[in-house]
Amino acid sequence: MLGIxxxxxxxxxxxxxxxxxIPGDQGGGINIGTxxxxxxxxxxxxxxxxxxxxxDIILPAAAGFDFMxxxxxxxxxxxVIVIWEVISKVINK
Length: 93
What we know:
It is a single chain. The protein is mainly alpha-helical. The protein has one domain (about 1-90). The protein has helices spanning about 1-20, 30-55, 65-90. The protein is globular, with a radius of gyration of 13 Å. The mean pLDDT is about 75.
């Protein structure tokens, strides 16, 4: 349970960082959408990292706010933001 809470907090931070890296049409500024995308992205990033490392899709406990956890969460958030933008463009056409 503590691992999920750590990934959520890390996801909030990752959403902000990812928004700064990819400033698209996710809505203006830092908002609830960015936060949700960051949390989902952190969970996706953690799952992908564990899959690459072990071959199993599990959510490892975040090892705190170390460099690798932040990078993993930001990469996951960027993936989620890009997927969200693609889906939004397809739906809005």
